[in-house]
Amino acid sequence: MDVISIDKSKCILCRKCVEACPFNALVLNENSVEVNELCRACGICVKKCPVQAIRLGQRKAKDLSAWKGILVYGEYVSGKLHPVTIELIGKGSELADKSGVPLYVVIAGYDCQASAKAILSYPVSKVLVYDHVELEYFRSDVYADVLEDAIHYLKPAAVLIGATPLGRSLAPRAAVRFRTGLTADCTFLDIKPDGSLIQIRPAFGGNIMAEIVTPYTRPQFSTVRYKVMEEAKVKPIGGTVENRNLKTLISQIKIIELIKKESKKDIVDSERIVVAGKGVKSKHDMHLIKAFAESIGAEIAGTRPIIENGWVEANRQIGLSGRTVKPKLIITCGVSGAVQFIAGMKAADCVVAVNTDRAAPIFQVADYAVVGDLYSVIPQLQEVLKKGKGVPDNEF
Question: What does the H/E/C string look like for the chain?
């Protein structure tokens, strides 16, 4: 990680660097210029210094071996744990076993003791609990204080956070406080013998898979999408719950009013999904897809073009810019299978693809490939269902 350093023996206190800094990260004291936590290592001050007293270089952690263990952030919202927490515990346990370190979970909220104890059903060494009325609702600054305190206390080598709206707000704030790296929306995690986390995520619109490591600083932060990792198996190892309090829980954010969001069925938790792709020619033809989905008890979803046309609600898009799903059955209708889409559904138990193009990428991940026009194939499938007794719940 780049960092600014100032040679005080060369500095002439001319203020040119202070005036040039766009982040107000340089402060002129009586006898020196100091760099504060706002520094983004952009290098502008290096160019402005007339006596070359400022350098931009790599900062290495003093002792990486002091940071051990894997810490999972347990997301506690509306009186319950978000399911992504159990998935993170599953991956965290795997990484901890591989590197021979403990697995920790930190949970913050109000009246969350029962959830903390429930976490001990999984292979967790310690659950750190911050239970306070001031933590009843998520406020990014106070929650960042909590996570910072937990990290200072446990000194984990890696921190795993769900890539939920809450996690995406919390993770970067915590990473900045430790001036360390954060890899967002990871789809694969592994760990090296030295504790370096191997973080893989789609990049450049999903056209490449980037492998990212944070070699010089600790802890290493990763956010992981829901439904990407396998859930942890119940396996208690005699872990403990430890309650911890901060001296102050003062937030700059005031909650003026709480407006309950209208609840909509989320395809993330659906066991059966029918996906409409570009092969669907018009909005009117969506009736065919919807009727078929209803006949097998499935939810409707769409690829990005279908969403942009307004034929399916935005919260039903599958892919890197939409939802990641893991149903028992997914049937794609006229979906070519771009990498961005496949990244959001490849973990499905059974994939049935209908497409006229034999070379369509979707067939590379399909368990059953139907080469044909969806306008012919779907009615035939519906006819079979009408003659039969439908699809049993345990069929897939």
Answer: CEEEEECCCCCCCCCHHHHHCCCCCEEECCCCEEECCCCCCCCHHHHHCCCCCEEEEECCCCCHHHCCCEEEEECEECCEECCHHHHHHHHHHHHHHHHCCCEEEEEEECCCHHHHHHHCCCCCCEEEEEECHHHCCCCHHHHHHHHHHHHHHHCCCEEEEECCHHHHHHHHHHHHHCCCCEEEEECEEEECCCCCEEEEEEECCCCEEEEECCCCCCCEEEEECCCCCCCCCCCCCCCEEEECCCCCCCCCCCCCCCCCCCCCCCHHHCCEEEEECCCCCCCCCHHHHHHHHHHCCCEEEECHHHHHCCCCCHHHEECCCCECCCCCEEEEECCCCCHHHHCCCCCCCEEEEEECCCCCHHHHCCCEEEECCHHHHHHHHHHHHHHCCCCCCCCC
One digit per residue, the tens of pLDDT, for the chain of length 396 reads 567 899 999 999 999 999 999 989 999 988 899 998 788 888 999 999 999 999 987 655 557 889 999 999 999 998 999 999 999 999 999 999 999 999 999 999 999 999 999 999 999 999 999 999 999 999 999 999 999 999 999 999 999 999 999 999 999 999 998 989 899 999 999 999 889 999 999 887 777 889 999 988 899 999 999 999 999 999 999 999 999 999 889 898 999 998 988 777 889 999 999 999 999 999 999 999 999 999 999 999 999 999 999 999 999 999 988 999 999 999 999 999 998 899 899 999 999 999 999 999 999 999 999 999 999 999 998 888 777 655 544 444
